[in-house]
Each structure stands twice: as structure tokens, then as C-alpha cells.
Fold:
Amino acid sequence: MLRLSLSTEEYLMLGDDIKIVFLGGSNHHMRIMIDAPKEVNIVRNTVLEKRNPELKKTSPKYYAEPELPEKYRKKKIQAGN
Structure:
């Protein structure tokens, strides 16, 4: 498994034709955009778990990391400065 930290508007490429863009977020929510061919099925885990409740029991659990202290965060550059 690969674990990454991304800044707003950075993206990941999966193969040559799938792009995942991190759009930002707040607290426990984040926004991403997935640009993929129509042939690629993209399904939320909640939908899969509704169809097959056994998945929820057997799936690994992932936990958010606590926020980094201010001194380790990237400073945002404002336009026009």
C-alpha cells in the first residue's frame, strides 16, 4: 500500500488514463476529482458494503493521522504577492 500527502490541486496518475485530483477539504471531509474512461467502474465503499455486508467486517480499517504541527505545514502562496 502506498501512503501519500498531497497539496491542493496536486494529482496522481493511475496508468495512462486515470487522474485523481485532490481538491482540498476540511476536518473529516476531503474532495477529490477522478478523471477516468467511462469503462472504468468507480464505486464508493458504502455502496459495496450495502450490497455485501460481509465486506465491512473483513475490510481493513484505516484511520486519519492527527494534523501536523504548524511548523511542518506548507505555507500557501497568495496570488498577486
Q: What stands out?
A: The helical segments are 45-51, 54-58. The beta strands are 11-14, 18-26, 29-35. Residues 11 and 21 are 4 Å apart (CA to CA).
